[in-house]
Amino acid sequence: GAGKSGITYEDAVTQLGFTSDTLLDEIVAAIAQSDGDAMFKTIEKVVTGGHDARRFATDLLERLRDLIILNSVPSAAEHGLIGQPADRIQTLAEQAGALGNAALSRAADLVSDGITALRGATAPRLHLELLVLTKVMFLTQVQTDKHTVLSVSLL
Known about the structure:
mainly alpha, globular
């Protein structure tokens, strides 16, 4: 039921089984910073909060899609290409800019593959953690590759 202040955003998200923007913001920030510790802490919140692992991964994939579109088409929100409220657009634009389309696209591929792995999974937490581990390893490699390219270009 509703509390004294009525139904809040968090109440509605919980009741409908969706992932809160807060959790999605946390995981996207952790991905952008290649922060494995923060990624695993977010997964812990997902699992201990009783969220469905597959729903979380699907919501993350939708967020990554929105970020790719917003990064590619800055006026996407004005044209209804992404389904986010106007007060979230600036945050999403910052997230998109922090990652860039290449990293966003790769992250979306990994999450999409992870969703497939979660079908019928008897250990969804394990699959989410493996997905995060794969993402951390990928981002570490990207950072190493960027440094290598920069070093070579300086020569």
